[in-house]
Amino acid sequence: MATTTPSLAPIAERAAAPQTLPAITAGGLTWRPATADDVPALLELRNTIAAADNEPYRESLEEITELFAAPWRRFDVDSIVGLDDDGRMLAYAMVESQPGDTRTMRAFLFGGVHPSVRWQGIGRELFAWQVARGRQVLAESGKDLPARLGVFVEDDGPAAKRRIIEAAGFAPRRYYTELRRDLRDLAAQPLPDVKPAGGLRVVPFSDELDEATRLAHNDAFRDHWGSEPQTPEQWRTGRTAFMPQWSFVVVDDAPDVTALLADPDTDAETAAALQAGEPLVVAYEMASKFTEDFAVKGYTFGYTELLGTRRAYRGRRAGLAALAAGMRAFVNDEMEYAALDVDTANPSGAHGMYASLGYEVTTSSTMLSIEL
């Protein structure tokens, strides 16, 4: 049954989805949905676009392959690629939605045009297709929730791309920064020596604690703007670069189960896990190694992909202890920097914490959206 939010019109009405998608005629390309057979061509196209637009990352074949492995993605209706007469892929677009959205139904738009065929109107028509399909995805969800069409752009990316997005009615909504921390001279800038308070323990990430970590993540990010709970399927997807040996969790071996069950903020999944005697992860640091980015950035780094603390355990240095353990793991594997991204309006005050640890801003990005 669809969830209903009072005072909102039905999502099908608010989304104003067109019955048919607009045709893309510019550039004389042939258009069709993407398939798993397109992985090598899609990788080449996306990395070519990233290089042309001076984006601070590159992707791997494994990352693109994994996109097609997620069972909730519907490339047959939510993607499109443009091919020239020789069959070369020169443009693509995807609409991404997540099955776990329970507070805001979201559709994110991704796409790009090969630099050799820009300035022919392809990008504008392609983005119109994305917006139209995004509206259809929201309408088809049946979730009568607040809804969002979202696009992410690098702040120093092409101005023409941003103009197309803003001309379609999107407005800046959230700002993000990528931070790095030099790990090469620990005598001058030592790593923090942090132990969590109250009998909590930092332990290496393990498969046995994976589900408990998912529950901790969903609790930690409930008060973060734009975050939605992750289903087990979502949580386990997107791990081609995941480094379990760089990842750490903080556990409470003797939680006050009675108090936690009485706390109205304890979610149903956590309550069930507590009643079943499952381990309680209260903070976590999940790290990845994006080797393809090393040459682009000019240094090696360990990337803290997820960091969080359960709300009931904030103020006990649990998240900081997990982060410090991850940073030491980066050093042990001779990474030159520690890196992460942060929402500049993070409600937990994380930005200030990172600055105090020596993290500095390297790049920034913006999410533009239409709120429905």
Protein architecture, described:
This protein is of the alpha+beta class and 372 residues long. It has a twelve-stranded mixed β-sheet with strand order 1-2-3-4-5-12-6-11-10-9-8-7, with helices on both faces. The two termini are 21 Å apart. 31% of the residues lie in helices and 24% in strands. Mean pLDDT is 92; it is low at 1-5. The longest helix is centred in the middle third of the chain and has 20 residues, at 122-141. It has helices at residues 11-15, 39-52, 61-67, 75-78, 122-141, 159-167, 210-220, 232-235, 257-262, 268-275, 292-297, 318-332, 350-356; strands spanning 30-32, 79-83, 89-96, 105-113, 147-154, 171-182, 201-204, 248-251, 281-288, 301-309, 337-343, 360-371.
In terms of structural class, how would the helical and strand content be classed?
A: alpha+beta
Instruction: Describe the global form.
Output: globular
- The unreliable regions are 1-5
Mean pLDDT: 92
Query: Helical region count?
Result: 13
Please outline the major beta sheet.
12 strands, mixed
Proportion of beta-strand residues: 15-25%
Brief account:
The protein is of the alpha+beta class and 372 residues long. It is built from 13 helices and 12 strands.
